[in-house]
Automatic annotation (TrEMBL):
It comes from Chryseobacterium taklimakanense. Residues 18-197 form the Tetrapyrrole methylase domain. PANTHER family: RIBOSOMAL RNA SMALL SUBUNIT METHYLTRANSFERASE I, SAM-DEPENDENT METHYLTRANSFERASE. Keywords: Cytoplasm, Methyltransferase, rRNA processing, S-adenosyl-L-methionine, Transferase. InterPro entries: 4pyrrol_Mease, 4pyrrol_Methylase_sf, 4pyrrole_Mease_sub1, 4pyrrole_Mease_sub2, rRNA_ssu_MeTfrase_I. GO terms for molecular function: methyltransferase activity. Its EC number is 2.1.1.198. The keyword Zinc does not apply. This is Ribosomal RNA small subunit methyltransferase I. The lineage of its organism: Bacteria, Pseudomonadati, Bacteroidota, Flavobacteriia, Flavobacteriales. The keyword Cell division does not apply. Pfam families: TP_methylase (PF00590). SUPFAM superfamilies: Tetrapyrrole methylase. It is an enzyme of class 2 (transferase). GO terms for biological process: methylation; rRNA processing.
Length: 232
């Protein structure tokens, strides 16, 4: 089986935020697909401090991975070895690599077991006050300033035309720049939700304001994980 195991959104998240099944499935195997070995070991230690770290067999699966890079692990799975797919943050395969091994499991009759856990994208949406029936997630916006501005204006137009909520994110060290770009590109009455440090017990910040009100209430977002949502 392949267990799809969520990670915390904040290292300071209380353990009671998570279903007992997360620990249960981590204890079932020593074999994991991970995006970053150091992060994965911290997540496993968070949920299962009793698990012996030297016993872990970690296989890198990042945005550059192809099936040809995973042959050793795939052969082990065909032989009956259970694996976990561990996200960097939140749920695997949402704004996170990993879908290629899930697809491969379906093609090779290996059971896929999703484990309930947090998703910053969904938590931001449900906290925004925007349309949760119809929405689009865009991942990261372009780095080029001109292309980014065009994309921001396109997302605003989509909200106005369709009513669909538009969700996107940025690398934390570029959050402040993205926020300034949003202020410059969006109309004053357009509404923006910023959801930062989701699931942090004391520093969680979730607020929805119009752009004209954000101009007067600029948050400090540098190096803070954040999700941005435009909506009605």
């Amino acid at each position: 089986m392949l267990f799809l195991i969520p990670a915390y959104l904040s290292e300071d998240s209380p353990s009671e935020y998570f279903a007992p099944a997360v620990k249960e499935y981590i204890l079932k195997t020593d074999y994991f697909f991970v995006e970053n070995e150091k992060t994965a070991r911290k997540v496993i230690k968070f949920f299962c401090p009793e698990k012996k770290q030297p016993d872990l067999k970690l296989f890198i699966l990042d945005k550059y991975s192809e099936n040809s890079d995973l042959k050793e692990a795939q052969n082990l799975m065909k032989a009956g070895q259970d694996f976990g797919l561990l996200s960097e943050a939140g749920l695997p395969c949402i704004a996170d690599p990993g879908n290629i091994i899930v697809k491969w499991c379906h093609e090779n009759d290996i059971q896929v077991v999703p484990v309930n856990g947090p998703s910053s994208i969904i938590l931001a949406l449900v906290s925004s006050g925007f349309n949760g029936q119809e929405f689009t997630f865009h991942g990261y916006l372009p780095i080029d300033k001109s292309q980014k501005s065009q994309k921001i204006k396109f997302l605003e137009t989509q909200v106005q035309k369709t009513g669909y909520s538009q969700i996107f994110m940025e690398t934390p060290y570029r959050n402040n720049q993205l926020f300034e770009d949003l202020l410059k590109s969006l109309s004053p009455n357009t509404r923006l939700c910023i959801a930062a440090n989701i699931n942090h017990p004391t520093d969680e910040f979730i607020k929805t304001l119009s752009i004209k009100d954000w101009q007067k209430n600029k948050p400090e977002l540098h190096k803070i994980p954040a999700v941005f949502v435009l909506g009605k």
